[in-house]
Amino acid sequence: xxxxxxxxxxxxxxxxxxxxxxxxxxxTKPIPAAYLAQIALECAFKARILGLYHCSRLSTxxxxxxxxxxxxxxxxxxxxxxxxxxxxxxxxxxxxxxxESPLTGNVWNRIKSKEPERPYSLRYGMENLSLPEAQEELDxxxxxxAMVEA
Length: 150
Description:
Largest sheet: none
Radius of gyration: 15 Å
Order of helices and strands: HHHHHHHHH
Structural class: mainly alpha
Number of strands: 0
Strand content: under 5%
Number of domains: 1
Shape: globular
CATH topology: Four Helix Bundle (Hemerythrin (Met), subunit A)
CATH architecture: Up-down Bundle
Distance between the termini: 29 Å
CATH class: Mainly Alpha
Helix content: 55-70%
């Protein structure tokens, strides 16, 4: 059976990936935990973008918005959480939900970092994180997921 790649699929994948990150954090593996949290955030932002463009499936989005598709689903830009949060018009969601944005402060700056470049700095062991730092990133991820799922 072929999976339908749509907003719901991306949100499920984001939440499941987040749970994997929590399991790694509980096993005192902060770097892989933070890496998975990064992937979960990426999926959540992409799900939000699909919803903003009223596309029920990724294939529809690709056909209707090929330039944006290339920007967020091909190459390194698809992992740029700062850019994805902008494309997801994050401030508008915060206003709609009546919540302050969790995408401020040191934790968000670390997550969206270009120096060292995330997620590659985690994936290839170029960045060290403590358990408390990774927990901060998981906490932020959980808040973002809850807001996108709302």
